[in-house]
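## retry 2 of 3
previous attempt timed out at serialization; input unchanged, resubmitting
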Amino acid sequence: MNRINLLITIILISIFGCSKSVELNIPEKSEMYEVSGPVYINDEGTEIYLNGYFSHAELIDSVTLLNYEYELSGDRKWLNVTPSINSPALEELKVWIDGYSYSIILLYEKKVHYDFVFDSKGVTYKQVQLSGSFTSWTPSEPLTNEGGIWKTTLMLSPGRYQYQVVVDGKWILDPGNSIQESNNIGGFNSVLTIPDPSDNAPKLVTYTYSTTNITIGVNGSTNKIICLWDNYPVSFIADKNAISVNIPKNAKKLKRSYVRVWSCNEFGYSNDIMVPLEYGEVISDANQLNRTDKHAQVLYFMLVDRFNNGDKSIDKPLIDPEIHERANYWGGDLAGITQKVNDGYFTELGVSMIWLSPITQNPHEGFIEYPAPHRKYSGYHGYWPITLTTVDNRFGDSNALKDLVSSTHNKNMNLILDYVSNHVHEQNKIYIDNPNWATTLDLPDGTKNIRIWEEHRLTTWFDTFLPSLNFDLPEVEDMMSDSAMFWITEYNIDGFRHDATKHIPTPYWRTLTKKLRDETNNKLLFQIGETFGSRELIRSYVGSDMLDGQFDFNLYFDMRNIMAADNESFVKLSQSLKESLKFYGSHSLMGNITGNHDLPRFISFAGGALKFDEDDKNAGWTRDIQVNDTIGYYKLLQVTAFINTIPGVPVIYYGDEIGMPGAGDPDNRRPMKFDSLNRFEQMVKDQTTKIIKERRSNLALIYGDLILLHSDESTMVYARKYFDKICIIAFNKSNSEKSLNIDLPEYLGILKLESSPEYKITNQQFEINLKPYSYYILE
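## retry succeeded, writing output
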């Protein structure tokens, strides 16, 4: 795109385009719960739960949808949408109520038929299967044997997939595929890549705005453009270089609303544009955002028992010589967290939302885990609920929780609670009175249905004393959703982190979400889930009728491996980031983590104390894991910089703000360290604070478009753009200085950076010298 032509186009569109605001003919009160995210359509068809989008779905008169087959249920709660051979990548679903239409965006990416062939080279096998990221690592149905040539047809979305071949039960690398990469645990997998035609889809960027319109730059051809204000279509004019979107007069009545834009061509759908408005004017300063703006959140997660002891009078560690101290209660409590809130610890760090580990009552005795080596644990972590609606007496009481919530809100922060729906402890009265509410523990072949995460995903137990609940029973769904509601209505918390999300059927999440909306008046209800699995599985639980987001573990594992290990390439991370943006959108609420309580600390890999190919739990039990190499601190800061400068919600795991080490669970759950920090820990804390505050004060890092500029073995550079606010983020993971000279794309616009000895911009040429193990956030 020529810059002179682009500027002329923008000027002409701004002058002769939508120069006056238009009043939309919309209802006085919307029937939709919130600004709807897009619905991703599958090849086999997708059911849209309209009852989760609309407060009164029974009032729906009809729907309008072109280029797709659809069927609306008689009760108006469900719409089944099926693509045809000519269905476009982008379409607008219109839902009609009382003469008014509401718009929901549909996005469709056709899967590719891929013929997989395995040549046994004369070796006789009884059975050959595939297992990989496209099967959630569960062996597939057997391949068809045609004279020693084993075949199957896979239906795959474009992307990169790791896999192995399973021959007569033995897992091997594919001998016919020389492309391999690390599996992040010390071994290797074969890699299958399906080319992504959407690399040639349009690219949209924010350019200029006035009181009446917003101008969006377009790079690439477009076949379709859809512009919405909240859930209503708005007028626009466009040419091949720009789109001018009208800001309707209706927006002046609302404190917060959004203009959103999508486009597509024959190669696929574009990135999405999201522009927040305040009383009809484009937000130009991050200070205009408040604690109800979900995209502006930065989360901080701590295990209550391991954070801070504020009331020693309620300390009750279990007296049991079989329970090691690291698996016992340490005395952290709600009062201790309240102290840190009031002392300004979280405000100084810059986070906006606290996520508490579960606080419901857990057993007063220890239990031995089923898998070897059969260690005995207490329920210090909170995930063994023997009640559903009472605070564990080792963490405090009802008043302590109310004090914490009040203090958090007084500091202009939010608080969400880790809620366990999937299972209860065997001592829970619900299970004692209703043992038939649990799923089956003993499988027909005599094995125990314990931790069979994929094959029995919706029924497996976490341990013999933790019965999983059967959510096919309406009484179970009602009980667990009502119990979750209790914490909102009684304590005014701001939402949930949901444990073991993928082990519960999606109808439960829809039931819970609708109850939360219908029966509360909270301005903010944020729900984020935990699912280990493929991006497709993770996304199936995210939507306007279910969860706001989930943790992006696929991106995390790629980031962890690449940033911790010197021999891994940034090209892989760049590709992984592109896949996440394609699957979840450019303005998703997916959680981007520094780590969590189920995973070894990143710094333990980066600092050389822990190897990817060892048993991380055993390492924590058998040796003292520290930071062997102080380079690990700088690598950890790269992780923190990365998660705070990409789309999504950054999540800091307690202790990662100082570089606290730890192997696998429970070594990664050490007591928090506040005092006597060494110089590296203090440096990490200072830099983490600076990164978080940059994130929260810079609209380009919150709502900006992301443009990938460069990646190679050891360096990566990308930009975030929100109108004239542009950031460039750069990384060097090597032990030597790197010099880069990057051609900036014309559609990025004019970048104004003050030159320094390390970087400069001349005629769209960006030159930078990157120090070893460094990150840069330039604006």
